[in-house]
Amino acid sequence: MSLSPALRRLPALWWRFALSVAVLYLAWTFLARYLSDQHWNQHLRASEAAARQAAFDRTYGGADLKILQFYPRDSILLEGRRTVICYGVLNARAVRLDPPVADVAPSLNRCVEAAPERDTRYTLTAQGAGGQAVSASFDIQVKPDPAELPHITYFRAGRPRIEDGRFLVRLEYGQENGELVEIDPPVFPALHGTPFGQFYVAPLRTTTYTLTVTGKRGHKAYQSLTVPVPPA
């Protein structure tokens, strides 16, 4: 017995129906997961925004007197260089910076220049309308610039000789970055910025000579040299 065409089409129709159901199920599953992820992401963003707002309110809200920030651009500075000091205050009627470097005024964000000549502690004091005060401090270290320090490259004695009964020795020196050259015991007047030189000494007894080279900002370099004199 042969099946009618309608019956022969039943399996194909069944598979099409089953495939459609499966596709719809998968689409609904992906859509549900997508909507769930979107909802979770929105929840996270809302939580993060609430946390940021709470932090902002803790920092900037209310009427409390606060120093929001106070820091230097450089905590270690070479001599002769400048740096920047930044500060921010909230609900302050007046501010003071010690030692003073510039006119300061209440501000949430402001920076001023400073050029300390030595190790310095800076203190910011903020005063409120009711007379209350808060303060904060930091230190800036000032170090010499190695490229500017005076340096004695040599300080030596030549071969001694006797002339007219006098014991003579020629001393020689070389230096860098020096603005003033001196010797002790004194043999010549102070020399200004001479990079090298030579001179004679006639000690009566064994003598130690000390060469001093003074550079920028008063930095000094020393070197000593002993000239032995034999007994007469």
- Report how far the terminal alpha carbons are from each other: 152 Å
Continuous helix count? 2
The SS-based structural class is alpha+beta
- The percentage helix is 10-25%
- Name the average pLDDT: 87
- CATH topology annotation of the largest domain: Immunoglobulin-like
Order of helices and strands: HHEEEEEEEEEEEEEE
Q: Which stretches are low in confidence, meaning pLDDT under 50 for 5 or more residues running?
A: none
Largest sheet: 4 strands, mixed
Total tally of structural domains: 3
Shape verdict:
elongated
CATH class of the largest domain: Mainly Beta
Strand order of the largest sheet: 2-7-6-4
Assembly type: single chain
Total E-strand runs: 14
CATH superfamily of the largest domain: SoxY domain
Using only CA atoms, what is the Rg? Answer: 42 Å
Structure, explained:
The chain is 24% helix and 41% strand. With 232 residues, the chain is an alpha+beta fold. It folds into three domains: 8-50; 66-143, SoxY domain (Immunoglobulin-like), CATH 2.60.40.2470; 147-227, Immunoglobulin-like (Sandwich), CATH 2.60.40.2470. 10% of the residues are buried.
